[in-house]
Amino acid sequence: MSAQVPFEIKPFADVGTKEPFVARTSLGLIDILQAIDLPNKQAISEEIITMLSGSLMPAFLSLRELRKCVDKSDVPVVTKAKHFDDFYRHLWAAYKDRMQKVARLMGFDVGFIFKNDSSFEKEAAQFQSDHPKVHHSFAARLAQDRNLWQTSLSRFRNEFLEHQSLQRESVAGFYELEKAEIAFDNVWMAIEDIIVDLAASMLPPFFQIVEIPEQNRDPACPKRFGFAFVNPPTQ
Q: Average pLDDT, stretch 28-32?
């Protein structure tokens, strides 16, 4: 009889569902997708958890470290820069790589989101034509995100972090805590909106996704969305 292999229980993370980004991009999205008739729900749920634990949480941990040290003169400049660089790399991976994979598992190719302007416009129109049940505002909101923050974040990640083809002075704003805080919210909220919009197009006609009023959300897990009948029966 072989001896049992000892194992050690270790904490996985010290970031929980009280953080809105955790509640809304993990349990919130999984709850919605579990209600849809999809053949690969388990794979989708696993990819969402990977997106959270492998990308969004690491980005948040870097952001949390920056909140502690960014104004401290005794923290080396290189240390602060590393936290910023790690933060943006993980954040972009969550959006461009992980979110796309979740969408693909749902049956949608949203790669056009990351193409140049002319290709985006053409392929966004084709996407709406191919998926008429996706709300008509979907492409317009994506275009707005591109203009407001996605294009500049993509340029910073690709041309500076990855290829060092830009001068640091031209991207100095990304090394400000306020800019990083805004980038974090922009990305995780965009991920949530995209997945929810796609999911809404797959619901039965009598069912809809509704936003839970902020004051009614559970503080321990403030999920944003729930379900309701399109035309609830009158009493």
A: 96
